[in-house]
Every structure is written in structure tokens, then in C-alpha cells.
Amino acid sequence: MGVEASCSGGTGWRTGTRYPPVTASVREARRFVETELAALGRPDLSDDAGLVLSELAANAVLHARTPFEVVVSSADHRCVRVDVLDGSSSLPVLATALQTSTTGRGMVLVAALASRWGSERLEDGKTVWFEVGGDDEHADPDDPSAEDLLAMWADLDAVVTVVVPDLPVAALLAAKEHLDDLVRELQIVMHDPVFVARAEHEAPEEVVLARRLDAAVQAFEPARVQVRTQVVRAAREGRERVTLELVLNPGAGADARRFLEAVEDAHRLSLTGVLLTRGDELGRHAAVRRLYLEEVVRQLG
Which among 286, 179, 175 is positioned nearest to 231, based on CA atoms? Predict the structure, then answer.
């Protein structure tokens, strides 16, 4: 899957670390990659590489459920390759933006941020790799086409285009990244029945809030995918402001309201750290998130 790698091989630099299939490993692996890029003299690649690595490491924890290894290599200290190896032979699929698989949507983001990416089956599992810093421009994430969006709500009489003008790209991208980190962590911990059973005993209110946030995220996901796609493209093009154009069903206003309320409630999850440990990051970008969500609610009534 993907394309042929271009910047690995030769007698260059290579380092790796192995991780257990637990939630904390995603953050640790991201820090490892960012640290190694800084040591390599390429801290400019850390944001994109860290976000892509988080997607792949979360997939390893959530779906492969095996220990995984992260390997960083470079032949010339310019183009850098990162491999995530796990014990599952199931290869990732690049979904369309509207497919419901969280893994497929994550791979759309991988394709958007990486210069190249691919996957290969190994004797004892697979590797999913990506490159950053290469000469090739990033591939565009799959935009939902008008036909896709109309098909999604074929049972409705109409869809509505919501326009949210002049938003700051950097702040909105940071808000999306932090929320995606939290949602990724939520998916991992909520798929661990032993962990959830313990959390229900120690902090039942946090479990209720986590499930509410998970439901709200899934309901508002078509809009989130469109926001992510448009903001990533704007950032890649060097724009400082972006106008969002979202094709939504008429009921998305209620979904946006529930989503905003659930995200703001997620702050409380970070107070105990029982389920989620990144909820504190949400407060830093509350204003821009509230701005676009309240505008969706206003336009859809």
C-alpha cells in the first residue's frame, strides 16, 4: 500500500525503540520521534511527523494489540523515514473521508502530512512507514465530493452549506490536533474492558463523560473530517487564515452543540487523569473551537 520509499537505505542513520500496547506508549513514541528529529537537526519536521506517528502508534495499540517498534532512519539527514512495526498482518486502508472506520480516516491524515507512506507485510506482522522532508509535495487528503456528501444524507430533503469565514489556521490546526489526540486516547482506553471496569469503580462520572464525548465525536465526524481536510491544506499552502465551507445535513447544528458541550466537559476528565490525560490541552484553544462550532449552530438554527 502507498508508494515506493525514497529516502531510506544506504549507510545512513537509524535508531528504534519498542513499546508495549498501552495508551501511554502513543505519547512516548511521539516524544521519541520528535526527540530524534531534533537530534538529527530537523526539528522543523517534528509537528507533521509527531502527528502521523501518533495515528500509526494508536492503530498498533487499538487494532493490532501487540507490542510495536518505532524505527527512525535517514540516509542523508534531509529526508527521514519512520517505520511502525507490529505483530498484526492486517494492512491499513486509505478510506474516503466519509467512511466510518477511524483507522481509515486516520490514514487520510497520514497521506496528507507525509511526503510518502506505505505498508508491507513481514514474516511476523507488518510495518507501516512514512517519510517526511522529501522533495515530493504532500498528497492531498481525500476531500468528500458533492456526490459523497449527498449520498450520505440521501434520505433527507436537503443539505446545507455552512460558511465560517476568516479563521486563524495555526490556532485551528492546533485545536484539531489536541482534540484528535484526546479522541485517540479515548478510543484506546474505552476498548480495554479491564481498564474501563476499574475506572467505573474509581471514577464513574468520568466514564460517563468519556462515553458522552465519544458519542458526540462520532455524530459530528462528517463535519470534523471536512474541517481537518481544509485546515491541513491551508496550513500546507502557508495561509494564515481560512474560510471553512462545510456541507452538512440540517440536523448537524444539534450535533455541533452536543459536540461543543461534550468537549468543554472533557476538561473535567483531566482533573483526575483516570481516563484521559490530555484534556488540559483543550482549554488553550477553546476560543477558536467555540467560534466555528457556534457559527455552525447559528446557521443551522
Answer: 175
> Has residue 217 been placed in a domain?
yes
The model's pLDDT over 137-147, given as tens digits with 9 standing for 90+, comes to: 444 444 444 44
- pLDDT tens-digit profile of 212-229? 888 888 888 888 878 887
Do 227 and 208 contact (CB within 8 A), yes or no?
no
CA proximity to 60, closest of 85, 33, 83: 85
Q: Are residues 109 and 245 in the same domain?
A: no
Q: Give this prediction's pTM.
A: 0.61
Read off the CATH number of the domain in which 85 is found: 3.30.565.10
Q: Which of 2, 4, 30 is nearest to 17 (CA)?
A: 30
At 165, the pLDDT band (50, 70, 90 cuts) reads very high
**116 within 8 A of 134, measured Cβ to Cβ:** yes
Q: Which domain holds residue 224?
A: 146-300
Count of domains forming the chain: 2
